[in-house]
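Chapter review. Work through the record for Mitochondrial fission 1 protein before attempting the end-of-chapter questions.
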Amino acid sequence: MGSNLPYAADAESYGTLLIVHGGERGESADISHLCRSPLKPAELQVLRAQYEKEGDYVGVQTKFNYAWGLIKSNTRQEQQEGVRLLSEIFKSARERRRECLYYLALGNYKLGNYGEARRYNDLLLDHEPGNLQAASLRTLIDDKVAKEGLVGVAILGGVALAAGVVGGLIMKGARRR
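Structure tokens for Mitochondrial fission 1 protein:
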């Protein structure tokens, strides 16, 4: 059973960025707003209703559209469900893999799974080196990994410093006895 809904990525246009089947067209690649702009609840409900209506015979396009809407959500549980649905499409519909790669990368990025996000994004860039969306997402992923790495180093350094201070106090106390 197919869907009369438009292809989700065809419908998404932000300023000068036009997302078409994996980002083949676009004058600008600033995608940071995509990470912060969920669908309105009524819009997501339309996609959910179509998905549920098709039931056991849900079409690949309907599943993709619903997964796309879930990925755009600010709710972690919905994002996880979107990634799960896209993973199913990626595994079962070989002809739709390329279309899934970007949104699998974006969904994993939003969930904080930066290794998975990078893996999917790099697969897309291997096939489409000129994909501006994927290149921009790579920058976001790399920046986030670097930032979290620096935070991790700072935390580890703080823990080591605290351990050194505590150790020094213990040693000083032991000498007094």
